């Protein structure tokens, strides 16, 4: 913990998902890529399930996918049911009230946000998202230094490596979705996107020097911002067969005194 605090002092840490969302919503170019997000209460749960059918519930302050819940509104033969999943636990409830009681019990009085669910692309029938690493270079300019795919555990809803997710190269994770040429072009687009997000965040928090931008991609290849991590894990990139990206990220982190 002492080492963590020491490293963070050399950058800037913003833990609240709600605070980070509000900052990004102020940027005209970025806001259209942010899923609708509200502070969770029973009324918000009901209205967002009515609008989106699937939403994610997340602790305002939380890491590594811990405490994340997926809620869904299902309808079969005119009958409504509400589905709950946290980790590998899955439950169904007959009403929003029953679902909310379960959620309240799970979140243990912690403040939560409700976020519009995005139907992500899949890799071998597993949900995946992307971590875009953005760091200040020697000229103090933002630079995207790596992008990695993260496939969720087959029985889970989060992609985090420390929660059973599998790190995969960008090329591998898009192999069944894009041609080699289009994959290269899309990666270039996301590199710029990562820098744009970092620019928007540092406008409010100027001492930021390293970000992990977590992006979910839908069938139209829209990059949705799931979360922005101000203390991103470098070592997930070490899991890739090609170590060049990790070495670059680590070198930049050392220069920033964050490793």
Automatic annotation (TrEMBL):
<dbReference type="InterPro" id="IPR026838">
    <property type="entry name" value="YheC/D"/>
</dbReference>
<dbReference type="Pfam" id="PF14398">
    <property type="entry name" value="ATPgrasp_YheCD"/>
</dbReference>
<protein>
    <submittedName>
        <fullName>YheC/YheD family protein</fullName>
    </submittedName>
</protein>
